[in-house]
Amino acid sequence: MDKEYIRMEHICKRYDKTPVLKDLNAVLQKGEILGFLGPSGAGKTTTIKILTGQLKPTSGEAYVLGIHVKNIDETIYEQIGIVTDQSGIYERMTVYENMKYFARILKADGKRIDELLERVGLEKHKKKPAGKLSKGQAQRLVLARAVLHKPRVLFLDEPTSGLDPSTALDIHRLLMEMKEEGMAIFLTTHNMEEAEKLCDHVALLNDGEIVEYGTPRELCLRYNKEKCYKVLLENGEEHVLKQTAEDIERLSGWLLGNQAAAVHSCEPTLENVFLTVTGRELR
Ligand SMILES: Nc1ncnc2c1ncn2[C@@H]1O[C@H](COP(=O)(O)OP(=O)(O)OP(=O)(O)O)[C@@H](O)[C@H]1O
Known about the structure:
- The protein has a six-stranded mixed β-sheet, with helices on both faces. A four-stranded antiparallel β-sheet has the order 2-1-4-5, with helices on one face. A three-stranded antiparallel β-sheet has the order 12-11-13, with helices on one face.
- The mean pLDDT is 90.
- The longest helix has 16 residues.
- Helix content is 32%, strand content 29%.
- It binds adenosine-5'-triphosphate.
- This is ABC transporter ATP-binding protein.
- Keywords: ATP-binding, Nucleotide-binding.
């Protein structure tokens, strides 16, 4: 139980009479990344707001670090970090001053500032006014700031949305390191590749409802109805084979004749799974 950092039980949220979250159930353990995946308007941000005490659920129970969300007060911020957008940066202060200011508010060890700026690749920009950072740099500053006090749970709303692949990769690396150090990360994204790579569990959210939940691998295998294999031959030809006697014979012929350069199974990606489950694209 002490490793269970987030628990949601039957969480529902209505705005006026419109339901936007319907019976959400999920658990996030220490040292894990849980991805809430869904298209725009699915309810991802609303879920984060409920879990961080910014919004009350209409019904259901949720606990963060064992505290019921209705009892959450500012003291929880000593143990959690939140990155929802790039707001809250003081543009006229330098990168370093921003970090120092937040270290004081969060009662964090100031010695971590240099180490974190290094880890997010902002060490060489530390004297720059934060208002002059690029979008990707500002995103990294917000992330560094959110983990200054070594929170046990980190909430990330679309952490790499709009970033170039190399900056996104840096952020992925940092998140994996922090997960290894035991941080639990609640991540929302509509980037299925990101989720496949980072998340231990994913919840596919559609119109406020979790339509699938499991490890990315479990979900991809669950929807791998028509098993097939892609074979690349040494002569450059590509073939897609099914599990029929005829295709298995062709494959064994190529393997025995040393003609196959590569064989891949073609299970669906999370994106395909989402499309199958909901009939809609993620974007
Ligand atoms: N204050 C509000 N009043 C009424 N409806 C709201 C309010 N905030 C959000 N909604 C509605 O709730 C639904 C879920 O919104 P939410 O912001 O949680 O979605 P999201 O999955 O985070 O979307 P995005 O990826 O675009 O950020 C949407 O239909 C939205 O219009």
